[in-house]
Design a protein that fits this description.
Oligomer: single chain
Number of strands: 11
Strand order of the largest sheet: 2-1-5-10
Largest sheet: 4 strands, parallel
Radius of gyration: 16 Å
Order of helices and strands: HEHEEHEHEEEEEHEE
Strand content: 15-25%
CATH topology: Glutaconate Coenzyme A-transferase
Distance between the termini: 12 Å
CATH superfamily: Glutaconate Coenzyme A-transferase
Number of helices: 5
Structural class: alpha/beta
Length: about 180
């Protein structure tokens, strides 16, 4: 049944199925956006999508290319400033689900978004955590499958090179 589908496509569908109509999701571009919008268009029409750029309750007709895509503002209930979005919406505990990714993830859902290898001489330097620590703390649940498999062969490991984000909370089960 999985023939012809990539691992990223399978994770996108699995994440979509775990979302509920009552969820308020902090959405990123790529797989998180595809999963949330798939849920909105299939089984969770009441889901509220909030993108990092400050668009609230957006309902894009096409998947946005970036958080600055005009489609998000055009279809949003309202748009707020990024500081307001982080302070009031995210840090205020109004998000039920957040998506996070990284180059490495361990069995406890600790993420590495900093470097692979020694910090002073890494094999790979990554973009960093950005708002990930706030997302991990403030969202009710975290969906960690936002790791792009095409970019990294390292998905689940026993020991990360570095821990950028520590997350020891219960996550909703993502099943087929």
């Amino acid at each position: 049944m999985t023939a012809g589908f990539t691992p990223t496509e399978m994770m996108t569908v699995a994440a979509s199925r775990a979302l509920k109509s009552s969820d308020v999701c902090f959405v990123g571009i790529g797989m998180p956006s595809a999963a949330c919008n798939l849920a909105r268009l299939t089984h969770a029409p009441g889901i509220t999508l909030i993108y990092e750029s400050g668009t609230i309750a957006t309902k894009p007709a096409i998947l946005p290319l970036s958080i600055g895509d005009g489609e998000l503002c055009d279809t949003a209930l309202t748009t707020v400033s990024v500081p307001e979005m982080f302070r009031y919406w995210l840090q205020g505990g109004r998000m039920t689900v957040g998506f996070l990714g990284g180059a490495q993830i361990d069995r406890h859902a600790n993420l590495n978004t900093t470097v692979v290898g020694p910090y002073d001489k890494p094999k790979v330097r990554l973009p960093g955590g950005g708002g990930a620590p706030e997302i991990a703390i403030a969202c009710g649940e975290i969906f960690p499958p936002a790791i792009e498999l095409r970019r990294s062969k390292i998905v689940s490991i026993k020991h990360r090179s570095n821990v950028s984000l520590v997350k020891h909370r219960r996550s909703r089960s993502v099943e087929n």
